[in-house]
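yo

u said u wanted the structure for the complex thing, so here. seqs first:
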Amino acid sequence: MSVNQREIGRRTLLGEIRRQQRVPRIDLSELTGISRATVTTITAELLREGLIEEVASDQGEKDSKRGRPKVDLKIRGAARLIAGAKISHKTVSLVLLDFEGRQLAHHEADLESGVLSPEDMAAVLADMLEDLAAKASMRRADVAGFGLGIAGIVDAPRGFVHWSPSLTNRNVQFGDVLEQALGLPVFLDNDANLVAMAEKSFGLGQGHSDFIVVTIESGVGMGIVINNEIYRGTRGCGAEFGHTKVHLEGALCRCGQRGCLEAYAADYALTREAMIASGEAGERRVEDILRAAKEGDEMSASIVKRAGRMFAMGLANIVNIFDPELIILAGEQMQSSHLYAEDVIEGMRKLIVQVDKAPPEVVVHKWGNLMWARGAAAYALENVSENALLEMAENVA
Amino acid sequence: MSVNQREIGRRTLLGEIRRQQRVPRIDLSELTGISRATVTTITAELLREGLIEEVASDQGEKDSKRGRPKVDLKIRGAARLIAGAKISHKTVSLVLLDFEGRQLAHHEADLESGVLSPEDMAAVLADMLEDLAAKASMRRADVAGFGLGIAGIVDAPRGFVHWSPSLTNRNVQFGDVLEQALGLPVFLDNDANLVAMAEKSFGLGQGHSDFIVVTIESGVGMGIVINNEIYRGTRGCGAEFGHTKVHLEGALCRCGQRGCLEAYAADYALTREAMIASGEAGERRVEDILRAAKEGDEMSASIVKRAGRMFAMGLANIVNIFDPELIILAGEQMQSSHLYAEDVIEGMRKLIVQVDKAPPEVVVHKWGNLMWARGAAAYALENVSENALLEMAENVA
Amino acid sequence: MSVNQREIGRRTLLGEIRRQQRVPRIDLSELTGISRATVTTITAELLREGLIEEVASDQGEKDSKRGRPKVDLKIRGAARLIAGAKISHKTVSLVLLDFEGRQLAHHEADLESGVLSPEDMAAVLADMLEDLAAKASMRRADVAGFGLGIAGIVDAPRGFVHWSPSLTNRNVQFGDVLEQALGLPVFLDNDANLVAMAEKSFGLGQGHSDFIVVTIESGVGMGIVINNEIYRGTRGCGAEFGHTKVHLEGALCRCGQRGCLEAYAADYALTREAMIASGEAGERRVEDILRAAKEGDEMSASIVKRAGRMFAMGLANIVNIFDPELIILAGEQMQSSHLYAEDVIEGMRKLIVQVDKAPPEVVVHKWGNLMWARGAAAYALENVSENALLEMAENVA
Amino acid sequence: MSVNQREIGRRTLLGEIRRQQRVPRIDLSELTGISRATVTTITAELLREGLIEEVASDQGEKDSKRGRPKVDLKIRGAARLIAGAKISHKTVSLVLLDFEGRQLAHHEADLESGVLSPEDMAAVLADMLEDLAAKASMRRADVAGFGLGIAGIVDAPRGFVHWSPSLTNRNVQFGDVLEQALGLPVFLDNDANLVAMAEKSFGLGQGHSDFIVVTIESGVGMGIVINNEIYRGTRGCGAEFGHTKVHLEGALCRCGQRGCLEAYAADYALTREAMIASGEAGERRVEDILRAAKEGDEMSASIVKRAGRMFAMGLANIVNIFDPELIILAGEQMQSSHLYAEDVIEGMRKLIVQVDKAPPEVVVHKWGNLMWARGAAAYALENVSENALLEMAENVA
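structre next:
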């Protein structure tokens, strides 16, 4: 067995144990196609490293042959401590997980401003992480990895932020800034990608190798899962669903271009259209517009309907390109309900290529900020896990 | 080494030998990470099966140790015979390849009608395949696999055609119809996917794991290569670039919907707009419109410019979703030159998310029908190769 | 009574007699506000000139005072002979009227080509006019004035054609060319204006001082009647309804610009969209599309619906500008029925400024080519009448 | 001479004297075509009524025959007192004119609210009119007629307001409400019509019988002058230029419909688009956007450019319908300069029907609120003048 093969074996077995949660050693060979001998060797290594542990079998039976209690293998929660966070408009949500993925603590804190310098943001996050750890009677230094979701255009593998509405600067090596401030490995990604990660790890995407997550918050985001992996594009500029164009020279978008889907479907698109109806009374919130539409106000209904039609068109383009098995519409707030409406989904179905086979399933998943943070933690967990295996390989070599 | 591992090993090594074209056995271990012993075992099997062969090393040197001439391993061309074909509007192009991928013969023949019943189309293809084989002094029965590219919506893994402009029926298990008529394994796919396959196998996509191919023929197609694989979507309805919507309730498309990119950028979109300018003189061809535009005719120029702007918008949406490293614009005819024009590409660049990093590379690849057929053959070759390995596994087991 | 006043008096009285058809001299003073003495003087002049005549009163009563039969005044039909013609795509329709407006003869003849030089067109019309006169046992030289309706942009007062689809040349002083070829006064106008003239003289516009006529033939035209006069604009380029823009950079129009109403609602707009559906079977006619739409063909229905929506938008713009009492939709062919449909008119009503008062009345008037020719004759009659009065003034002076 | 003729004669002569400002009695016969005897009779009547007066001739010469100083006739300023007012968003501007049209006083006052009940608005105007009169040492009761311009949809002949942004109620017989509150004749019209009246009476429209005025304030309005008369449409809903549609289902307008020109070109359309660029800093004013655009801000430039393109399209539609000799773009504020820009006018020229003759002249007239009020006064003057003649007729009869 080459070095290469052993590494692949470790990754495969650790992954399988995580997937199975609890699994008898004897089943792993069949589940993975790795020979029993190799399974024995590798699981011994993983036990020695403390990444997994033996527990009494669920079934409580004794091994008929050897007479001692059957054991299952499982991930050892105490092996590593993982943190995840999501920067929202003016708040940060954080969670602390153990290596098994169990939530140990969570924390929410306000930002004094929606836009900070990278250094200030890093300092603020360091404090928050300290507070988070304290809630589980830990210290920040105990954390093995920190996953962070941030709005904007992020080159995740490089930890590089091309642009984020939360940062004063463009083109920031924000991963490095954070690692320096926090003193621990940081795994940074676009927030929509981390929702996809969350859906895949513990949400509606479990058991699906290929699916699309569309997030609706103040903007419109997308996470693409292909072959069990987040698809990010070459420069980290993929999945920019909100900036796909639905109208040549259409409405003005925050990005400065015209005709972006966001400019029709995002929060600001609705409040902007509603401005004229509100007269001197100031800006109306999306909730107000939705309520007015439901109560029969024609102008509000027109605003909501149009956002829905454009959103349906954007979704249809995604289906026409990906033909996914599953689309998850994920949003934290009730205020996006108009985009989840059945007539919007039906509108999408009319705009996709028509074949005599059911269109992709579309499911709606409304959740809170904490789930975004858990997605960030899941991303960190994946990377911390990988790093642990790389360390083992180096130790062995 | 488990059965599973042995199969993976065979696939890996056969693939590596194909990629390297000629390679000393000794290099394979390093190239693949498979142990020398395993390499020796597996290559012996492949030699025995006749899938690869030994040839004198290019360098003509002798093995310093053993004193006998150094040998390279290579794919054995005679191992299998592969055919590929592409159904165009009223012609079929075919190529015959050996197992190394060398072209042994090609053939082009007319269809008496642009639309045939599945059975008639299969019968016609059977005759053409016979003629093709004859050109290389072979018979149809010698062919190990037949790849076919057809326009329309194809569920490739199932060999199922949801709809094709070349067939009278919808929802045809056309792969089965063909296999029955031809008496050999058939591998069917959407034609644009096979262009992507061709680009990946022996075109501009070589060495790229992720890229997008946009084909411009009478319609507008797309092939998506992600992680070295063609991405097809769940139902075979992915990559329908021509039917992504660029205008809500816009121009009427052949598909019956409105606002599809095709309805602005395809051949028929141009001739349709030009109709009014031609008066009673009948329909003008795309070539005529392009020439007139170049010669300063304002109406023609307006037609061409608009097609280009909409195409740029469609391309920008693809970039905003995939952020690919490379986009290949592939078309067989000079008549699509207006969509390849620099100002169209520049238009796309203005509509994508702006970051301080170079936009995706866009290259233009003009080629003939034969290359589409070669893409189909490449797809068949991949499958025939896989089948050969499966047979080995069964023989061994 | 000044010269000026006498001329105004003659015009007023001749007009009133025409309007009343038959009227006792004694009523004219009350109807016009002109003193009895002046009425007596002027009617005597008109009788002497042969423009009017006395006829026995309808009521057949005798004048109680003077004991002689009561007489009415009426226009003298034999006073002048008037011809009118309308050039359609490949035919010309002509009518011959007497000075009372009674139709003496009509004639239809084919053109050998849809587009002729001004001189050839004039020669052809001279022959046709000869044939028309012959049908009433007259000669062309007996005709006092010839009214002609032609598609295109016509500066009517100058007899100047900026452009017409029926003529090879632009910028033709076509009135002069015709007068030379015909040897008689010619009164030229845009055909839609002459439909307005016809509606006002003997159609649905009788009794309305202000209304709009929209003509739907191969193109879309408009005639505007304000204060009982055709409104033509400064250069003869007014009322170009078909070229009002309904979409910035929209569909290509025959005029070379984009987004004109015609490019969505005219015959060619429908056949153009339908082209894609017809495949190789060649162009479908509008009638075919309308029938298919009625029979449930979705694509045809989509074509028809869109034309109607755009037409409704164009109509709404006219209402928003003119707020007319009455809109007459005038077309000769059944093939425009989709634009007259109730849902189109309803669509218009939704797009106009909403006040708590009934929207303008919209009536549909389907008629034949002859009515267009009668409109041309009515225009000529008005001018011949005016010329007769001018001659009288000169004779007197 | 009938009663009717005498009334026409009075109207003609009073109008001619007003037009000539000063004119010898002897010239009036030639100028109007009315006999010398009648001129003598009628001018004597007008002098007796005090509507005109004799003044020494400009030339100061003596009548050669009679030996007494030559006299001119002129309007007698003291004959009537006229007031005009324009209700702007939160201010009212008023002017006081004498019967010659000379401005005696002006006044501006704030409204406590932009929207008032008809009764409150009438009460406020009564006070303001008192203040205005006081500035000329007069009292409100001395005023012979009050002209008022108000934004919205006004049926001027009926003094009926379908809707106005300045009034709380729809469908108000506002003319009656005002007459009751003010105790004097009130002449009410849409404000844009009164700008047209002002242009015709003492602005750039003098000497033009047919022209279009486009007003740009917070909304977009239009006044149509045809044959020296304001054209208002049947229900007072004509000339609603701001609500002509430039895009089917386009941007939302204040009127609740979509695609109105106003929704792209009015003040609120610009500030609405700019909202997204301003982030949390609140709404930007039009002036700020224009300045930023000039200083190179791309997003602001995009906003301004789009408003200009849509405005050009709207203007082109007006030209295609009216083909006017002259278009006057009239706005009070510098903030509309982007819509007056040469490239907007040039854009319009490209969208109109192309003939080989110069397009309509477009002139820009920037003026203050007072000029709107003067337009209102001019409208009142016209009506007061007419009423004076009617009184004369009754006195005589």
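Chain A has a mean pLDDT of 90. The two ends of chain A are 14 Å apart (CA to CA).
cya
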